Amino acid sequence: MIIVQSSAHGHANFLKKLAKGHTTVQYRSFKHFNQDDFLRDLSSAPFAAVLEVSDPTTALVAWYEAFLPVIEKHAPLRRKRVKHPTLPQWLSPDIITAMKTRDKLKKRKEV
User: Fold this and answer.
1) For the whole prediction, is pTM greater than 0.70?
2) 10-32 burial, b if ≥16 CB within 10 A, otherwise e?
3) Which of 6, 8, 38, 57 is deepest in the core (most CB within 10 A)?
4) How does residue 20 score in pLDDT terms, banded at 50, 70 and 90?
């Protein structure tokens, strides 16, 4: 963002205001995860190719190639822009739940 300021002498000062950097975090979305469908697709994945390879590195690559399409289908990677990549230590799941409850009640004007 560029801010233009006018001085008493008629000069214009251009200040470049740098926005604080945001961080992008990646996570797997389990919002629509169905365990039964996941296990069914996982059991039909071609893991036999992993056992046919003697080299551990090649076997790991074969395992990833069999596993990743299944996990991508059932729990896709999502990106989210956040200000801080980690939460403060004092912000526990119980506090977050209480904050969400407070916000819902406030929205319904019950507080």
Assistant:
1) no
2) eeeeeeeeeeeeeeeeeeeeeee
3) 38
4) low
